[in-house]
């Protein structure tokens, strides 16, 4: 979301409390502005502070093994490194902490040598033990992490050969795993092996080896960074300081980047209604279409949502074309598969929820449901809020009395984590934050131990168990064409069941001042990437 999520959604909020012993530069909430109206010491020339506006909260989990928070993931990409990282647009892997990409992607052992002189932000060297520490956490069956779903199916283990060499041992050939290594950010064992340190990571402690180090973190306000002088990797920092503001509400976010008194140089999550005015003001506004979507998630233990006919009825009832034209200003498409149409594995699903209120009423009647009242638990992401009235009017029109109460993303998914009862969640998600391959995308949302399936209470359903078996079979299939066919077939099951399913896929817009910044590329998932940007 995510997007979602989500705690990435997955963690606590509040000020960061740090254990003693870390240098002041690594203590969050230690310095920097505490208001979205204060950008700190702006400096001048090339030493001035870059100010960015992110349309998502910075109070989700910052733990790289856990998070799907748009703000936190984007920030972590500047603070941490993987053995390999990927281009933010093409997602092609390149050497980050490792010195090269393995020549044989189909091998079942990948050996990596760590970059000579690589150090963490406290000055201590990056070692093979740090790499093993992170992967051991991800693969630990007793530790539930989001990253486990991206690695456990194909990665057997990681071992240190010497202080600068590690080997990854695969269960079977899995070339897609190379691009996934960016999701295993290497974290210092001497920091995060301390008691309570993973809780600190959730709350905002970030200590990596990347080009920028975190200097202050104020939940619900802003997070600041500065160039790490000890960085010797492939993406050197171009900005001496950065201040990332979190402004979820659309109007103040747009105001921060527009006009003669603009306080920021770049902002993501630009509302479609503001594009023309921003362009007239000299800004560049660009976007990308991808997996970003509004999804509905049903609690299958809360009747009548255990009945697939009810879930289908509520999807058929939504006037998705109206949603695209009115709420998204044409910058989107009704979902015709779990995957967006631009995904390499896309195929139109056997079940497509074209607007059909008559069919919706018939399905509700067949399920014996009448006088249904639904409270939608929705996130307050601005474009989601714009879409919610179409859902309400559509459901009201088929006799489903609907209540809307958007709230902060963290609040929504805290309720999910606490296993509170609910009926339907409407939220934003974009698995493209993690990658493009369909196997990764589907395992992010579906799987027997998956966080989302825990939210839906659906994992024990016989249909779900058959689905998970087909997903595992696709992961292990070495032939790309056969694998694609298996994926497309099981996505048809996901579409039919509509337990967690997209309503629309939309285009995400980023705006920046080309008179001040160059090297910006708008990405089709939330957040920004400034690793190849610089002052104009």
TrEMBL record:
The keyword Signal is assigned to this record: yes
> GO molecular function of the protein, one example?
peptide transmembrane transporter activity
Q: Which residues form the signal peptide?
A: 1-27
Checking Pfam families in the record gives: SBP_bac_5 (PF00496)
List the GO terms this entry assigns under cellular component, sorted alphabetically: ATP-binding cassette (ABC) transporter complex; periplasmic space
Which keywords does this Swiss-Prot/TrEMBL entry list?
A: Signal
Q: Which GO terms describe its biological process?
A: peptide transport
Coiled-coil region list: none
| Residue span(s) of domain Solute-binding protein family | 93-444
What is the name of the protein in this document? ABC transporter substrate-binding protein
């Amino acid at each position: 979301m995510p997007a979602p999520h989500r705690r990435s959604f997955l963690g606590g909020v509040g000020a960061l409390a740090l254990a003693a012993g870390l240098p002041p530069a690594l203590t969050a909430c230690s310095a920097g502005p505490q208001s979205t109206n204060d950008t700190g010491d702006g400096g001048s020339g090339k030493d001035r502070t870059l100010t960015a506006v992110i349309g998502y909260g910075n109070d989700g989990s910052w733990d790289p093994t856990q998070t799907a928070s748009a703000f936190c993931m984007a920030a972590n990409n500047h603070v941490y490194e993987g053995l390999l990282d990927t281009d933010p647009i093409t997602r092609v892997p390149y050497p980050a902490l490792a010195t090269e990409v393995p020549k044989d992607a189909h091998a079942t052992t990948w050996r990596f040598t760590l970059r000579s002189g690589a150090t963490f932000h406290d000055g201590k060297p990056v070692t093979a033990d740090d790499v093993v520490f992170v992967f051991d956490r991800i693969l630990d069956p007793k530790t539930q992490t989001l990253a486990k779903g991206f690695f456990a199916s194909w990665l057997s283990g990681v071992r240190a050969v010497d202080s600068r060499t590690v080997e990854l041992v695969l269960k079977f050939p899995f070339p897609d795993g190379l691009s996934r290594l960016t999701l295993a950010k290497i974290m210092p064992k001497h920091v995060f092996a301390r008691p309570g340190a993973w809780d600190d990571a959730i709350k905002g402690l970030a200590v990596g080896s990347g080009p920028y180090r975190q200097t202050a973190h104020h939940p619900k306000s802003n997070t600041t960074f500065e160039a790490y002088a000890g960085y010797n990797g492939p993406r050197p920092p171009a900005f001496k300081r950065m201040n990332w503001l979190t402004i979820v509400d659309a109007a103040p976010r747009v105001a921060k980047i527009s006009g003669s008194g603009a306080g920021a140089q770049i902002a993501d999550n630009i509302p479609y209604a503001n594009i023309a005015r921003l362009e007239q003001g000299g800004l560049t506004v660009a976007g990308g279409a991808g997996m970003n979507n509004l999804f509905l998630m049903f609690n299958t233990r809360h009747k009548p949502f255990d009945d697939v006919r009810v879930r289908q009825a509520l999807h058929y009832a939504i006037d998705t074309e109206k949603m695209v034209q009115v709420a998204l200003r044409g910058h989107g498409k009704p979902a015709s598969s779990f995957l967006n149409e631009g995904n390499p594995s896309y195929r139109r699903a056997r079940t497509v929820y074209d607007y059909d209120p008559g069919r919706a009423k018939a399905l509700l009647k067949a399920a014996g449901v009448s006088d249904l009242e639904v409270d939608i638990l929705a996130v307050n992401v601005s474009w989601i809020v714009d879409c919610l009235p179409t859902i309400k009017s559509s459901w009201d029109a088929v006799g489903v009395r609907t209540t809307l109460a958007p709230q902060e993303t963290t609040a929504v998914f805290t309720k999910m984590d606490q296993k509170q009862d609910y009926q339907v969640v409407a939220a934003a998600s974009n698995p493209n934050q993690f990658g493009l391959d369909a196997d990764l995308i589907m395992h992010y949302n579906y799987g027997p131990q998956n966080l989302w399936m825990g939210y839906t209470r659906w994992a024990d359903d016989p249909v779900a168990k058959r689905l998970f078996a087909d997903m595992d079979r696709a992961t292990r299939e070495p032939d790309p064409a056969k694998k694609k066919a298996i994926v497309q077939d099981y996505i048809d099951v996901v579409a039919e069941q509509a337990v967690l399913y997209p309503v629309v896929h939309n285009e995400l817009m980023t705006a920046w001042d080309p008179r001040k910044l160059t090297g910006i590329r708008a990405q089709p998932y939330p957040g920004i990437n400034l690793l190849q940007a610089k002052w104009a």
